[in-house]
């Protein structure tokens, strides 16, 4: 569905009666519940979990961060 199609649907909601809005809400809630049940809970692992399939890339990123940390001089406040 294009963004234009979606915008058209959203704009057309203003013409619905209250009963039609309730019916639409029930339909959408049912479809959303079905979609949420199909997704395993372990899919939401965040950015680190997203890299679980590319361990070498994650290792390289961590190694680079550690190297930069070791090479960068300490930043002390003027009074120290």
Quick overview:
With 80 residues, this protein is mainly α.
Instruction: Give a quick account of the main beta sheet: strands, pairing sense, barrel closure.
Output: none
Distance between the termini: 60 Å
Structural shape: elongated
Total of helices = 4
Helix content: 55-70%
* Overall residue-averaged pLDDT value: 79
Oligomerization category of the chains in this entry: single chain
Question: Helix/strand-derived class?
Answer: mainly alpha
| H/E topology pattern | HHHH
| Number of structural domains | 2
Q: How large is the radius of gyration?
A: 25 Å
How would you describe the overall organization of this protein?
- Helices cover 66% and strands 0% of the residues.
- The chain is mainly alpha-helical and 80 residues long.
- It folds into 2 domains: 1-39, no CATH class; 43-74.
- The chain is elongated and about 70 Å long.
What distinguishing features does this structure have?
single chain, 80 residues, mainly alpha, 2 domains, 4 helices
List the helices and strands and how they pair.
Blueprint: H1 3-12, H2 18-38, H3 46-50, H4 55-71
């Amino acid at each position: 569905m294009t963004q234009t199609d979606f915008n058209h649907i959203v704009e057309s909601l203003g013409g619905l009666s209250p009963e039609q809005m309730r019916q639409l809400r029930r339909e959408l809630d049912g479809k959303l519940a079905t979609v949420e049940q199909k997704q395993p809970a372990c899919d939401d692992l965040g950015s680190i979990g997203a890299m679980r399939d590319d361990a070498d890339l994650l290792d390289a990123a961590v190694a680079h961060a550690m190297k930069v940390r070791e090479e960068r001089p300490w930043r002390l406040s003027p009074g120290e």
